[in-house]
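Teaching soon. Invent one.


***
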Amino acid sequence: PLVVLVHGHGGTRQENGAFTELASMLAEVGIASIRMDFPGCGDSTEAFTHNNITNMLRDVDAALEFAMAQPGIDAGRIGMLGYSMGGRIAMLKVADEPAISATVLWAPVALEGSDVMVDVFGDKEQYTAVRNEALRRGSAVFTTSWGQEQELGAKFFDDLERSEPLEAIARYRGHLLVIHGSADEAIDVENGIIASQAALSTASAELKIIRDAG
């Protein structure tokens, strides 16, 4: 069996060691996994201005295609785990990928449009200011609350505002597990709750809220 691990916005394929540890744990029980660095992240040599949902979905497609072509992979047991923005990518991907029969959303950025990311930018005014500059100039620099400087391209905002992850997960027919910390200050637990409620076509859906976890 194979699991595709999808990292969060501005993260890396290591996710501060969490994905590295998870990949090792999966390997110990005979489950293969594959991870990728999205544009401008980790060892990627692309500019962060190419970091948008369209390109992230293409990277997931390429990673999945590569992994499934490796010897010994069971094409009937493919899963995906998405963390934070990676959870949003997973929601969009699994809706129309019948090969993926099991999905985990870990603190997903799940609400439609840009609503969740507005909080990441501080408030609606700050989000709008960065967005408008990016649309006007092609890109705009944003410094996250944890001190990471990101040059966001106009397409990042366009893709974000057009994406409908809840509509997508409603079409998913495999097994779903949603995990969220009740004290998550970056991505409110409401995202995980609503994502699990929106999964109307799944073979099974489980929501696990970890009390007091950030």
